[in-house]
Amino acid sequence: MAQTVENWCAVIPLRAGSKGLPNKNTRLLAGKPLYRHSVDMALSCGASQVIITTDIEEILNQSFPYNVMVIQRPSHLCTDDVAMAPVLLHAIETSGYTGTLILMQATSPLRQAQDIQNALNVYSNQDFDLVMSVTSADNGVLKWGTVQGQQFIPMADPSFCFSNRQSLPPVFKPNGAIYLMNAQWFVKNKGFVTPRIGTIEIPIDRSFDIDTAQDLEHCEALLLSSSKANP
């Protein structure tokens, strides 16, 4: 059944290592460190608590408001090949948090307050284990498949492989900005995978995931342009 959300917590994972853009989480974006955009957004949207899980010494040694908890992430959860699920599980178990949480990746700084509220509304009013933000994608992927031996295995309905693109249904992909769930459910489930996933759509112009210096520059231009348009 749908769950009423009275309080929620934001979890923001920050890792020191980044091959595409070294120290990207602490680089300045429109006047403040990249990760602070997510921290400030969570607090301004009513998060009762923000949990930062990180191995960045600068952040571990910094002072934050009383409702921001910083957890030192162990080194085995800081490598390039570590998935997000064990990182989030560690943060939940270390903090002892048991309620509704939103995973907010710092590399998605263009999410807006309304996006978070939309996710909370979907989670509150419908029966989903997980609500995540998505953005529209090329529906041509419905023609794709895998190859096993010499056999082509369609990824979706086999008829899609031979359909005109105009007749294919719309396709959406996760954009990494918002993942909303119950902490206890996540621990019991041991990850994100579930057939009961709700969505909110975020337009493509606000769905950038920062991985390079060019991404950072582009996002900064968008933020500065938006601030001028809405002083």
Tell me what you see in this structure.
With 231 residues, this protein is of the alpha/beta class. The protein has a single domain, classed as Spore Coat Polysaccharide Biosynthesis Protein SpsA, Chain A. Helix content is 28%, strand content 26%. The strands form three sheets. A seven-stranded mixed sheet has the order 5-4-1-6-10-7-11, with helices on both faces. It has a two-stranded antiparallel ribbon with strand order 2-3. Strand 4, helix 2 and strand 5 form a beta-alpha-beta unit. The chain starts with 7 loop residues before the first strand and ends with a helix. The mean pLDDT is 92.
**What letter string, H or E per element, gives the SSE order?**
EEEHEHEHEHEEEEHEH
Class per helix and strand makeup: alpha/beta
Radius of gyration: 19 Å
Query: Using DSSP, what is the number of strands?
Result: 11
Continuous helix count: 6
Percentage of β-strand residues: 25-35%
> If strands are numbered along the chain, what order do they take across the biggest sheet?
5-4-1-6-10-7-11
CATH architecture classification: Alpha-Beta Complex
Tell me the helix content: 25-40%
Number of domains: 1
Q: Can you tell me the CATH topology?
A: Spore Coat Polysaccharide Biosynthesis Protein SpsA, Chain A
Contiguous runs where pLDDT drops below 50 for at least 5 residues: none
Termini, distance in Å? Answer: 41 Å
- The shape is globular
Largest sheet: 7 strands, mixed
- Specify the CATH class: Alpha Beta
CATH superfamily: Spore Coat Polysaccharide Biosynthesis Protein SpsA, Chain A
Report mean pLDDT, rounded to a whole number.
92
